[in-house]
From TrEMBL:
Compartments, record wording: Cell membrane
Organism of provenance: Amedibacillus dolichus
PANTHER family attached to this UniProt entry: ATP-BINDING CASSETTE SUB-FAMILY B MEMBER 10, MITOCHONDRIAL, ATP-DEPENDENT PERMEASE MDL1, MITOCHONDRIAL
Residue stretches spanning the membrane: 20-38, 58-79, 151-175, 251-269, 276-296
InterPro entries according to UniProt: AAA+_ATPase, ABC1_TM_dom, ABC1_TM_sf, ABC_transporter-like_ATP-bd, ABC_transporter-like_CS, P-loop_NTPase, Type_1_exporter
PROSITE patterns with a match to the protein in the record: ABC_TM1F, ABC_TRANSPORTER_1, ABC_TRANSPORTER_2
Keyword terms of this UniProt record: ATP-binding, Membrane, Nucleotide-binding, Transmembrane, Transmembrane helix
The name this protein goes by in its record: ABC transporter ATP-binding protein
Coiled-coil zones: none
Length: 581
């Protein structure tokens, strides 16, 4: 019931349209119900004496009918056009809300959910919901009106005949419901099987290089043929069911007419039924039976719409665990003093990742985090922009707890360069401008120069307008990284996080980018994570993160003197370099 209330809320902005839609639906039903009555009128007219009056009566009838059909057409237009438009508007509203919610949801949600599924919610679930939202009330309303109205009129014409009709109709209804359920099951199976075909296709095409290099085309062909065949089998089942459903329904309709014909003849012979009344009766049967079929098919739409809305509602009701506190303040005039005080954090209850971590960084200073992968370095960095919140302890910037600041102002003051770079569909210029929406061309070029990518961009035929393609597929790793560095130059934050920014690059590109990164780190508080220790020698403090948390800390020289974990790492890499040189 609660979910129903939630659903009705989406009608609220359109209640006038909805009301008018219902009125038009009502109009259509009434006109359809009135139509068979003309037989009575016609019958009465034809027995009139005077041909003149007959002619006039028929003209009046024709004019009346014409008006009726004009009104019906107008109603029909409103229901088809405005009703659907209302559905589409509701779909737009829901899609917007869902998108906003997706943007609000925290990283912890994205860790658990798959983006493909989220996209399908945005597209197909919402379509199902709104198809139902528009057709649902109208279908039920029109159908019930017609069923009840025609039933009353049928009873009014002849009660015993109508009892016969009900018996056959109930049999037909039982058959329809059963057959429809079967048919829907085969439809679902169809959808699963075609998904299998698509998955198989995607897998083979996506991995075509691997397929060919192993010369495994034959195996892939057989695998594909199998899923293709399974799809065919499910379609065959589906069409068998559909055939049964349709032919069965047709038969029952025929049976209905035979019953009425035989029964009607009997009652006419008995003298309880007029022949013209039987003709009117036959017309009403159609009005009575068709909406029953509509309702049977409607059960499917209802099911889809309901489960779609349930899924939609699930997302909408997911609590956003990281958001602005009610009295959140703007982070302004940042100096860049960062403090991690006794920070504990875990992604899930089973395993603690950070255990009482203390880090202090003075404004404009740099620290480096080193250690084995999985130690928690990235996690430490993710806590600063509040991608996740600490379990206990606190993190402050210039003495202010980050939880007391607005997320927007906090994140605007932190720049992040990571190993993976995500480029959006669009031009190189647009991708750099992502660092500062509304940036001027001069600013973009200036940032590109600082990131050492300006010359390269100019060497492209379309310069800054060059389209980067899906995820930047047309650029090398180093080029993409430079674009992401240019973004951060443009953003110009006081605090900088470099998380293995150069780890994916070869030595040559790394050396080049290193210079830009050093330039970027100037006058900013920075946290650097690096595998290659040569890049962090100059850090004001190096913190070694191990299995058991912070294992040692100090400057490069101090740690070498300590001659423990860091010194061991350093020698290992240094000797490695000597050998390869
Ligand atoms: P590092 O950057 O030092 O390699 P991370 O901070 O990425 O280490 O990871 C620390 C630990 O937290 C690892 O055991 C990792 O498996 C776990 N972890 C990292 N990210 C997530 C996540 N989003 N959800 C659950 N566990 C995670
Ligand atoms: Mg990491």
């Amino acid at each position: 019931m609660k979910i129903m209330k939630k659903f009705i809320r989406y009608y609220r902005p359109y209640r006038k349209v909805f009301l008018f839609d219902m009125i038009c639906a009502f109009g259509i039903s009434i006109i359809d119900l009135a139509f068979p009555q003309i037989l009575n009128y016609l019958n009465a007219t034809l027995y009139l004496e005077d041909p003149q009056t007959i002619r006039r009566a028929i003209l009046v009838l024709a004019a009346g009918l014409l008006v009726m059909y004009l009104v019906r057409a107008a109603c029909k237009y409103y229901v088809s056009a405005q009703g659907h438009i209302m559905g589409a508007r509701m779909e737009r509203d829901m899609r917007k809300e869902l998108f906003d919610q997706y943007e609000r949801l925290s990283f912890s949600y994205y860790d658990k959910n798959n983006t493909g599924e989220m996209m399908s919610r945005l597209v197909s679930d919402l379509f199902d919901i709104c198809e139902f939202a528009h057709h649902g009330p109208e279908n039920v309303f029109i159908s019930l009106l017609k069923i009840i109205g025609s039933f009353v009129l049928l009873c009014w014409i002849h009660v015993p005949l109508t009892l016969l009709l009900v018996v056959v109709t109930v049999a037909m209804l039982l058959f329809s419901l059963r057959q429809n359920k079967r048919m829907q099951a085969t439809f679902m199976e169809n959808r699963r099987k075609i998904a299998g075909v698509n998955a198989s296709l995607q897998d083979t095409l996506g991995g075509i290089r691997v397929v060919k290099s192993f010369a495994n085309e034959k195996i892939e062909r057989e695998k594909f043929a199998e899923s293709n065949e399974r799809y065919l089998t499910s379609k065959i089942d589906n069409y068998h069911c559909m055939g049964w459903f349709q032919s069965g329904n047709n038969f029952f309709q025929g049976l209905l007419y035979v019953t009425i014909l035989v029964g009607g003849a009997y009652f006419i012979a008995q003298g309880t039924l007029e022949p013209v009344a039987l003709a009117t009766y036959a017309l009403y049967i159609n009005i009575f039976v068709t909406p029953i079929e509509v309702l049977v098919e409607f059960t499917e739409m209802l099911q889809k719409g309901y489960s779609g809305f349930k899924r939609f509602n699930e997302v909408m009701e997911t609590t956003v665990d990281i958001q602005d506190a009610p009295d959140a303040q703007e982070l302004r005039d940042v100096k860049g003093v960062i403090d991690y005080k006794d920070v504990c954090f875990s992604y899930n209850a089973e395993e603690s990742v950070l255990d009482h971590i203390n880090i202090h960084i003075d404004a404009g200073r740099s620290i480096a985090l080193v250690g084995p992968s999985g130690g928690g370095k990235t996690t430490i960095c993710s806590l600063l922009p509040r991608f996740y919140d600490v379990d206990s302890g606190s993190i402050t910037i210039d003495g202010k707890d980050i939880r007391s600041l607005t997320l927007e102002s906090l994140r605007q003051n932190i720049g992040i360069v990571q190993q993976d770079v995500y480029l959006f569909a669009g031009s190189i210029g647009e991708n750099i401008a992502y660092g500062k929406p509304g940036a001027t061309m001069e600013e973009i070029i200036d940032a590109a120069k600082k990131a050492n990518i300006h010359e390269f961009i100019l060497s492209l035929p379309q310069g800054y307008d060059t389209y980067v393609g899906e995820r930047g597929a047309r650029l090398s790793g180093g080029q993409k990284q430079r674009i992401s560095i240019a973004r951060v130059f443009l953003k110009d934050p006081k605090i900088l996080i470099l998380d293995e920014a150069t780890s994916a690059l070869d030595n040559e590109s790394e050396r080049h980018i290193q210079k830009s990164l050093e330039e970027l780190a100037k006058n900013r508080t920075s946290i650097t994570i690096a595998h290659r220790l040569s890049t962090i020698r100059g850090a004001d403090e190096i913190i070694v993160i191990g299995e058991k948390g912070i294992e040692e800390r100090g400057t490069h020289e101090e740690l070498l003197q300590l001659d423990n974990v860091y010194a061991r790492y350093y020698r290992l890499q240094f000797e490695g370099l000597e050998e390869s040189a």
